[in-house]
Each structure stands twice: as C-alpha cells, then as structure tokens.
Amino acid sequence: MVEIKRPELLQPSTVKGDEDSKYRLIYTKSKVYVNPTAYARDNIPGFISLVKRDAPNPSYYLAWIPETLLNERGATEWDKFVKVEEKADLDEEDEDVVLIDLPTQRPESYAFSVPLTQVYSLLVYPPSFSSWHGSIHINLYSGTTLPTLYFHDNESHSFTMPTPTSPPTNTVTSITAYPPPPSLSSPINSSSSWGGEDFIARVRSYAHILRSNLQPSLFLVDPSRSDIETHSTQIFDDDAVDDILAQSSYANSHSPVPAHRKPRPLSSPPTSALSPNPYSHRSSVLHRSLGTMSSNTQSSSQARVALLQSFSNITRATRHAAQNILSHPLAKPIVPHLPDPVKSLVNVNGDLEWGSWVEKGGVGEFESARVYLARWARIVAEEGERARRRESQTVGVSTSSGVTEETSSLGVFELLHSASNLPTPTTSRDPAHPVDQICWSSWFGADGRPQVRFEEMKREVFRRGVSDQGRLRQTVWPFVLGVLEWDVTGEQRDNNWEAKRTRYHNLKDQWCGVPEVFERPDIIDERHRIDVDCRRTDRTQPLFSTPSGTPSPDKSSEMDDEKARYSTISPMMVDIGSQSPSNEHIDRLASILLTYDLYEQELGYVQGMSDLCAPIYVVMQAEEEMTFWCFAEVMNRMKQNFLRDQSGMKKQLSTLQQLVEVMDPELYRHLEKADALNLFFCFRWILIAFKREFPFDEVLRLWEVLWTNFYSNDFVLFVALAILESHRDVILRYLVEFDEILKYCNELSMTIELDSTLAQAEVLFLSFAQLVADLDRRQAEELTSNAQGLRHRGNDSRGEPPSLTKVPVLSEYLRDLLKAEKS
C-alpha cells in the first residue's frame, strides 16, 4: 500500500481556496480489478485514474480507487468519475474541471496513489486465449510492486457505450510507434484496443514512455539515459540470417549450397512462380531495413555489412566489459585462480584473447552460470577486502586501533529501521591481542582463587580469544565450559575434579570389560556407528592420522588382555578391513563417545557428535577424562541439535528465519521468492557449529567465543546471519533458485573470514537488542496512551507523524535470543 503523505484533505467545495490541495481528475477507467486471491468472488472492482495536482509546478498522480470507497463518499463522488470516463477527450484547461480527493490509506481496500515520477516501469500483458483479461503491473523506483490491475473491458462503461469521436492522437499508433513491438490489441478482437492500451496512450501525454526491445511487455516511464541505451538495442529475429543469406542465394551466386536447400528471397518478381516468402511480412528492425528486394546487389551487400557490424558491436562491447573487470587492480589477485578459459581472456599486456574464449567454448564447467558469476563476484570482493586491509596496515598503525578500521566495513549491517534513529553499534572484538599465559595467570591469587569475576573472564575470552601458544586452551576451556568451578580455591577445584575423574571411570567400566553389556545387540549397533564416524573424523590431525602399529605382546595380566579386547569398538573384524585404518587415539575417541552413549541414554549417540568431540580431544592432549566432561558440557548446550525428531533444529532454523525477516526484510523477501525460507543451506552450519566451514585452528577460536554465552545462548544464529549478510548482495543479484543458493552456501566452506564474521555477528546482536528495546518502548507508549484515552493527532513528541502501522510483535523465540547464561 502506497500513500501520499499530506495534511487533512479538504472537501471539493473548499478546495479552490487552497491551491496546494487541488487534485484534478483528468482520466479514469472503470472495472479495473484487483485480485487479492485466486477466487473470482474476491476480486475488487475499481477505477484507475490519472490526477493532476494544480501548483506552480504541477504534478501528476497514478491512482486506483475501489468502487466501495466511492460508494462511501456518496453519489456525487461517483458521478465525477463517470463523467470523466464518458468524456474521454477532457481538456485540462476545460472550465468544467472535476476535483477529487485522493484515496486515503486503507489496507483492506488496496487503494493507492503515487506520483508518476515514482513509477519506474509498467509490465503490460494484453488479453490472450490463456488470460481473458489484460493486466498491468506497476513497479516503483523503491522496488515496490503495486497490486496488479486487471482490465475487464467487457464490463467497463467506456467500452460498452458508443465509441466517441476521439482525436487521431489517441489511436493505436500512439502505443505502437516505438519499434519493434507486436500489437497489444487482443487476439480475440483485433479491430479494437483494450483498456490497458488506452491507459498507456493517455499516460504518454504526461510522461515519456519507452517500450523495451529486450522485453516487449516492459514499458519504462521517463527512462534514464542508461535505460534508453540498454532497452533500445535492436534485436533481430531468429530467421534474420536466413533472409540475408537468401539475398545471395540465387542461381547466379555460385553458392556451394544445393539449390533446393537455399533460402527463398524476401520477395519475388511478379512473374516468379515462387510462393510468397513468409519472411517478407516480418517486422523486425533488420527486415525493415532490408526493404524490397531488387536486382541491385548493393542492397544485399549493405544488409550483410549491417549484420556483421551488429555482431561486431556485440563482440566489442562484451570484450570491453570483460577487459574492464579483469584489468581492475582488485581482480589481479584472483586471475591465477580462475578457470583456464577465463584466464585466457587476459594476457601479459592486459589485452583480451577473445578467440581462445570462443574456441574453448565457455567456462568449461557444467554448472549454473548464475552460481559461477556469484562465486566470481565473491572472490573479487574478498580479495579486494584483503587488499584494503593489507594497505591499511602498510600505511600505518597510527590510527586509533585495528578495531576502528574493522568496524568501518560494517556499513552493510546498519539494519535498524530509520524511524528508530538508533545509534549504530560498534564491535568490541580485539583478536589481535588474545588472552595469553601471563594474562591468565594474573587473574588468579596464590591460593588458586580467581581475582576477577566469571563474567569478566568470559568477556575477555569473547573479545580477544585464547592464545594458541602452548597449552593454554587446555587450561581455559574447562573453566569456560563449567567443568571446573571458577570461584573456589585451587585445592577445592582439584578435589572436585578428582570426583569427576572417578565418576568417568565408573561410567566406562559399565561396558569396558563387561561382555554381557558390550555384546548386547543395541550396543553392537551403537559401536558400529561410532566406529564408522570416528575413523573418518579429522584424519588430517596428527593424533588421528597415523595408523596404529602392531600391538605389543607384553601385557601386565590376563585381565588387561581381556579389557583390551573389549575396548576395541568395531563390532566385527571384517568391518576394520573395509574402512580407514584406526589407531590408539581413534579408539579412545570412540570409547569416549560410547561412554557418553551410556551416560546420556535418553539421547544416545547421533551422527555428528564425533565432529564435536574430536577437536576437544586434540586440545586436551588426549586426556580422556577431561575430554569426556568438556564434551558432555558442550552437548548440554547443543543437545537440541541432535534430537531424533529434529525439533531442535527446526526451532533454530525457524528462529533464524524470523531473525532475517526482522533484520533484513529485503533478503527475507528474496529467499521467500526463491522458495528458500526453510534455510536448509544453514542446517550444517548450526548442527555442528560451523565445524566444516572453517579450518581446524579457526574452529577452535570460534567455539571458545560461542561457549562463553557472553551475549546470547544462541549466538551461533547471529554468526549464521552475519555470513548471510556478508553475501546478501551476491545472493540478491545472482541467485534466484533454492538449488543455486544451496550450492553457493555449501561452497563457502573454508572461504569465510572468521574475525570479520564474529565482529559482524556482534554488531548484528547489538543492533537486534537495540531494535527490541525500541519496539518495547514504542509498545509501552501505545499502551500508556490507550490507557489514558488519548488520541494521537498531528505529530508526536519527536516531531514525526504518528505511525499508522501497528508495532510488530516479536515471537518468544526471538526474545529468547537476548538471554545469556548466568554465572
């Protein structure tokens, strides 16, 4: 719904006293319908109108008013529209002018009125055998599409009454003057025009209308110079080449083509026995330029030259466009990574090898062109961003800080509504100065009790991360995850840890060395799934990459031999031979997961848990007990991801969908059109916390940030949103199908920059928190006003007009995003 913001409308009787409020009805047509649903009973009839606003600089408006709205205003208002419709040749300077009120905003009526200067284009579809009623789609410069208008000419008063004598300027030629459109008249009755054609002819009186050669149904309103150049390109028919070849295919042309295979000439002499050539009646620019065939060979030569020049222009324009892109400094770093056909477009001197492109026939990959272009655009943008950062570091570090430079690239995340006037948040991330061993040790006293609060520790880990030097992560992670208590002395902490170590071994002893448990059918099934997953998890890590050697024959006792036998997880020896080789650490990782399967019997083991446990095992330096309890704490946070009915994943994807809708409505609408609102391309991201989207070392840095729960227990959703927002322009411009978006997002793996993504995620969370606070404030103000019985008039306290839209209500899922773990 589009409304013209203006003061309270005046009645027609008093409008003459206010020159700024005169709206003169200059054109209207009845029985123009809006179809809200697919059912005919819901169709809404109305009048499409052109309105002039009298002023020193007059302006024109395009409006649609439903009949119900006119009925409410009385018979006088109805008669005005009928009068103007009957008098099709109404002169603007006529003394008997008709003044009306523009429609007010009423969501249920679909009424609208917009200035012609805001209309970008019209999509015109004349009546056809498949669609009895012609239609017009109105697109605005803002990207909004107004309700589609359907012209029911068989009901319209202007079509059923006797046709008035109209000036020749309003004939059909007014709409078909621009080459080379097919006729807009209905194929059912070609002798008379339809309502949309008459409407566009009238609009031509007040705006320049350009019909596109690229899309005959597209009409541009007051097009820009670039639009004129783009949409005025001459398009030749598919048979145009045959026509030109026909001109040189006569008996005396010495053509190698057999006579019976030669195309017929455009026209034949009267004495020729050839049947009329169907090409001679075509209306393309090329055919019209050929004219009538004559015996003079000069015309055929000119036609061939014209065709070759057209092809040459296309080739030259494409070559220049590609050269501009590939010769740009930002494109140079990615040239070595491009496919060979694309790389061949650029030589040492920067010239294009167009012939090699044609010979190799495209990019050489059988994939969607849009996905290819999207990936290319992403690489260019990423390389440009890296070059910008390297340049900023080279120029000097005398700026305030690296964080300030980093936040300057977050302009795309200013997603708060402009009406809120809220400040743009900034990130607090400082990954260049991680928490090191000296800093960590300074937080504890001599007795092992920390000197800083738990929240302060989490804040620093969130902001700075943990240094990867030495074994500091092995020390920090148990505190972040809550395995080790924070606000206790070192002695108390050691005693509590010993109790947990003992409990782990008791849990493991429930199956290890116990044949009646280890050989149970349900345990055998779990062992098989765990063994298969562990053998293919993180095999590039040194602990898991080396196959096990031959077992040592020395055993301390028969009890140890028996226990070792049952610590082999693979249910059958034949399975071992058919899979990747194992080693001691893979077996121990599987033992931890099997122990967790018995520890959390309600959930058990689910595929994907090995991806979460393996990095913890590596960081804990193969310490089995600490790995188990850290993994158990991680699963307490992520248990919902592995529920059998996938209800937890559905909830998180639904929450992410609502978050996209609130923070980026344009991206939400695009995903909706692409049938991608299920966000399945984010499933793997959330399920295992981006384990396969980043290199191993960066996964460790990401997880320790997520585990702090500093801002939100579901900060992973803001990381996902930050990735989507980083690539929103590529998605909006190139990707229009769900499969394309899925393929593109899957190929983002190992290409995402972690630090900028976390900074953007923090800004998004702070923006979301501000937005929620602003909505709550506005809702409280409305409740207070309603309770006091006040009626808003004019402007509010901030000098802004009162909002006509209801304050949106956020779901509980979205509000839960603001909840963080309490210490």
TrEMBL record:
<feature type="region of interest" description="Disordered">
    <location>
        <begin position="251"/>
        <end position="283"/>
    </location>
</feature>
<dbReference type="Pfam" id="PF00566">
    <property type="entry name" value="RabGAP-TBC"/>
</dbReference>
<dbReference type="InterPro" id="IPR000195">
    <property type="entry name" value="Rab-GAP-TBC_dom"/>
</dbReference>
<feature type="compositionally biased region" description="Low complexity">
    <location>
        <begin position="269"/>
        <end position="278"/>
    </location>
</feature>
<dbReference type="InterPro" id="IPR035969">
    <property type="entry name" value="Rab-GAP_TBC_sf"/>
</dbReference>
<feature type="region of interest" description="Disordered">
    <location>
        <begin position="539"/>
        <end position="563"/>
    </location>
</feature>
<feature type="region of interest" description="Disordered">
    <location>
        <begin position="786"/>
        <end position="805"/>
    </location>
</feature>
<feature type="compositionally biased region" description="Polar residues">
    <location>
        <begin position="540"/>
        <end position="554"/>
    </location>
</feature>
<protein>
    <submittedName>
        <fullName>Rab-GTPase-TBC domain-containing protein</fullName>
    </submittedName>
</protein>
<feature type="domain" description="Rab-GAP TBC">
    <location>
        <begin position="467"/>
        <end position="710"/>
    </location>
</feature>
<keyword id="KW-0343">GTPase activation</keyword>
<dbReference type="GO" id="GO:0005096">
    <property type="term" value="F:GTPase activator activity"/>
</dbReference>
